[in-house]
Amino acid sequence: MGLQDSAQNITERTAEIVSRNAQLEGPLLPILHDVHHAFGCVPEAAIQPIADGLNLSRAEVHGVVSFYHDFRKSPAGRHTLKLCRAEACQSVGGDQLAEDVMRALGIDWHETTPDGRITLEPVYCLGLCSCAPAAMMDDTLHGRLDATSVKDIVAEASR
Amino acid sequence: MTPTIFIPCDAAALAVGADKVAAAIANELSARGLEATIVRNGSRGLHWLEPLVEVRTGHGRIAYGPVRPADVPGLFDAGFLSGGDHPLCHGRTKEMPYLKGQTRLTFARCGVTDPLSLEDYRHYQGLKGLEKAVTMTPADIVREVTDSGLRGRGGAGFPTGIKWNTVLGAPGAQKYIVCNADEGDSGTFADRMIMEGDPFVLIEGMAIAGIATGATRGYIYTRSEYPHAVAIMRKAIEIARRAGILGPSVLGSAHAFDMEVRVGAGAYVCGEETSLLNSLEGKRGVVRAKPPLPALEGLFGCPTVVNNVMSLASVPVILDRGAAFYRDFGVGRSHGTIPIQLAGNIKHGGLYETAFGLTLGELIHDIGGGTASGRPVKAVQVGGPLGAYFPPALFDTVFDYEAFAARGGLIGHAGIVVFDDTADMLKQARFAMEFCAVESCGKCTPCRLGAVRGTEVLDKIAKGESPEANIALLEDLCNTMKLGSLCALGGFAPYPVESALTHFPDDFDKNPFLQAAE
Ligand SMILES: Cc1cc2nc3c(=O)[nH]c(=O)nc-3n(C[C@H](O)[C@H](O)[C@H](O)COP(=O)(O)O)c2cc1C
Ligand code: SF4
Ligand code: FES
Fold it and tell me: Which of A24, A94, A148, B140 has an alpha carbon 20 to 30 Å from B498's alpha carbon atom?
């Protein structure tokens, strides 16, 4: 996906997303979410059409994109594992679990495995704090994780 | 009569396999040639028993849990469709002690109904508050909410009626109701549970707020970490619109009110109300200086009510049953009920709605059953990442806004995270600073730089480097952050740090010689 998108294609599709959201009050975040969904990131080539469509400067759009943790500059790996790092998950071994995962994948937070399969992102609470430790693999939630179940989840995504 | 089986669609239930259990049950039904209606309800809040499957029988709903897919054939063999006994059976759901001990006002329907069935919603007293509100004057609605004693459940505990009154009195052609559903505190999930389990109650609460203040548009701002809540809320809004609950004429009245859901993008600070408003406007989620109050100049400069999900979802029952009914629950200046969230290393984790007034010890030991690990409790953090750590010596603290404040703590959004004796409180203190550094909006120096310095100093203390000087430096830094920060992110991040230091000084005493010998 992401990498094959030509700049012109990105410009056109972004302009289309902008016009689709134009009637909203405060359309920038919904637009950025749609762009992110379409390209797996907010590509550099999407900034100008957004700025044009909303009558903002490029710097303003950049400023907003860079403020929010969710918006990536380049696409993630094929799967994204979001591991919760917040307190409730810490209280039941979340830190150890994260270390195990990082060792098994050979990557740190925000990194992608060399084969491009899995990107590891920290998340600060998934609202599953009564079923901790918790994680989200792509769109699927996982609670009450332990060394075995997290290994299974990673193995399934690696297949 | 075909039996009805309830399998929660709440995110916590999904995270522990509810969809797989639902599939296994559907398979088993067809393999055995049986018929049953499957309802995907919200969660009852007994999360250690999720997936908690219920069957409706002639003598009430019978609960089974935690059910794994492998348990399903056995449940059928035991005749669970007619409430048959089984090792996973807990008898009548209603009679389970954890539920029976609660006072469910805000969560009365959560886990009981199909979240997207308006029929269910009406059947269980839904819409009664709004039906009353459309016959009242705005001032009377505001008075009712004020008299109920309801205080904001998002953290600051500000009286909801007083806030509404300011918006009602503010001139403006356009006013807004903004629901703060950003629920970023670790240990909290009440907002998520309501959005997933009883979305209409939030819609009803927001519509009442709109009529009370003259606001015709509403936004629910929630987090991207809650995709299930977003999906259910959006469907519920569509259903409410088609039923005339939202739109140009709310329940056929002269009042217009409509709303939509907006999703944040992974910034904790956007839970702060002014940062949230900036984010809704499509800006960086930087905190605004107050005044002006959002009630006077909020979203797009218009008068705006910003309320937490729990505050708004408590309004329908107040209008329906009356201010006095609600006000009579609770203690001191904390009226009504509070949905307490028990999380972390706790045996009976989940949601427990009760009148204010239980002690921390009762909540953790009697209701929560102590730690999940079976080890002694070392500390609990109340009120999210900006809340203080309490040692067991303070477990006589009563759950009430003022009692917590008197002990250097805060109730916040009423999440309690339990830690056992393996916790390292220096590490917890360091995390508080690290979190503040990661999530700072960057507007003020004490927060932006102080939190980074704080982590560095704590790292030095962890290595046993000049402990006395560094602890003094840490205390200094905490004071600077408390005094010089614009919002509670920088202003309250010192509380977990200082409480850890005060109550667990041994964890900060890292003797370098001992460490070297390890
Ligand atoms: C850093 C920070 C994060 C906050 N996060 C939330 C939140 O997630 N949800 C919430 O309702 N209030 C949050 N608040 C409190 C809001 O600023 C505000 O007080 C609240 O939305 C008002 O609603 P209420 O009166 O109904 O509680 C936060 C405050 C701060 C300083
Ligand atoms: S205290 Fe921190 S988060 Fe709050 S306004 Fe200042 S820099 Fe922003
Ligand atoms: S702290 Fe991990 S899910 Fe809430």
Answer: A94
pTM above 0.95, yes or no: yes
Spatial contact of B451 and B436, defined as CB atoms under 8 Å apart: yes
- Encode chain A in three state secondary structure: CHHHCCHHHHHHHHHHHHHHHCCCCCCHHHHHHHHHHHHCCCCHHHHHHHHHHHCCCHHHHHHHHHHCCCCCCCCCCCEEEEEECCHHHHCCCHHHHHHHHHHHHCCCCCCECCCCCEEEEEECCCCCHHHCCCEEECCEEECCCCHHHHHHHHHHHHC
Residues in Cβ contact with B56 at an 8 Å cutoff, skipping those fewer than 6 apart: B3, B4, B5, B6
Res B165 pLDDT > 90: yes
- How distant is the Cα of B370 from the closest Cα of chain A, in angstroms? 13
Q: Which of A67, A70, A145, A149 to mutate to test the interface with B (most CBs of B within 10 A)?
A: A67
Say how far apart CA B362 and CA B368 lie, in whole Å.
8
Neighbours of B502 (CB within 10 A): 12
Q: Which of A129, A142, A144, A146 to mutate to test the interface with B (most CBs of B within 10 A)?
A: A129
- Nearest Cα neighbor of B162 from B214, B212, B215, B221 is B212
For residue B126, report the distance from its CA to the centre of ligand 2, in Å.
40
Residues of chain A with pLDDT under 70: 1-4
**Cα–Cα distance, B464 to B513 (Å, whole number):** 9
B435 C-alpha to ligand 2 centroid (Å): 12
Helices (H), B214-332: 227-242, 273-280, 309-313, 315-321, 323-327
Q: Which amino acid is at A59?
A: A
Strand partners, B144: none
Q: Minimal Cα–Cα distance from A109 to chain B, Å?
A: 13
pLDDT exceeding 90 applies to what percent of chain B? 97
Q: ω into residue B51 within 30 of 0, thus cis?
A: yes
Over the stretch B293-347, which tens digit does the pLDDT of each residue have? 999 999 999 999 999 999 999 999 999 999 999 999 999 999 999 999 999 999 9
Q: Which of B82, B40, B39, B44 is nearest to B66 (CA)?
A: B44
Its ipTM equals 0.96
- Joined together, the tokens standing for residue B507 give 């964890």
Domains in chain B with CATH codes: 4-97 (3.40.30.10), 118-327 (3.40.50.11540), 330-420 (3.10.20.600), 425-517 (1.20.1440.230)
Ligand with smallest separation from the Cα of B271? 1
